[in-house]
Amino acid sequence: MTELTAQPVTLPARPAKGRAKFLIGGVVMLAAVVYLIVSNIGAQQEYFITVDELEAKQSDLVGRSIRISGAVIGDTIEYDGKTLTFDIVNIPDSAATIEDEGGLAKVLHEAVTNPDAKRVTVILIDQPKPDLLQHEAQAIVTGTLGEDGMFHADELLLKCPTRYQEAVPEQVGG
Q: By residue range, what is the domain housing residue 112?
């Protein structure tokens, strides 16, 4: 019989240089992801500001890209094929407050019929007039506040009051 003796096995050493490059690359990628997350959280803290908040911070917001929300006053809508202008008035920014005040349709109606409500004129150039742009629609506009106090919009999102949405099944059925 042959006798077996255990010989120690030595594995080749891994180069430390490759591991260091991998760790440095991972740390750089992680730092970039953290930076992007933190910077976006700071930039997107508020979905929109109200007309009242815009009025209060007007001097600080001139020239900055912001998003505001308000109720459209229908008789101020003007469109000449190139330029669309309309006024919006303040509505609460909290869904709970809107619900407590009787719902979106009621809040929008009360906002546009209040003669003392603060107004902001919105100007949108070279875009078609949206079908949903009507009296008492909720508008969320993104753009910049000019030194003249007019809001120069780049994007317009509209939401009709729920009372219009409730009538849709009757209109389709009838």
A: 49-167
**d(C-alpha 104, C-alpha 158), whole Å:** 13
Same domain for 23 and 58?
no
Phi first, then psi: give them for residue 7, nearest 5 degrees. Answer: -105, 135
Tokens of 15: 């180069």
Compute the distance between CA of residue 147 and CA of residue 62 in angstroms, rounded to an integer: 6
Both 35 and 111 in one domain: the answer is no
Query: Residues 102, 127: one domain?
Result: yes
Q: Is the pTM of this model over 0.70?
A: no
Q: How many domains, the chain?
A: 2
- The per-residue pLDDT for range 31-48, each reduced to its tens digit, is 999 888 877 765 555 577
Distances (CA, A) of 47 to 59, 66, 67, 76, 142: 20, 9, 7, 25, 10
From 148, 145, 155, 159, select the one nearest 124 (Cα to Cα).
155
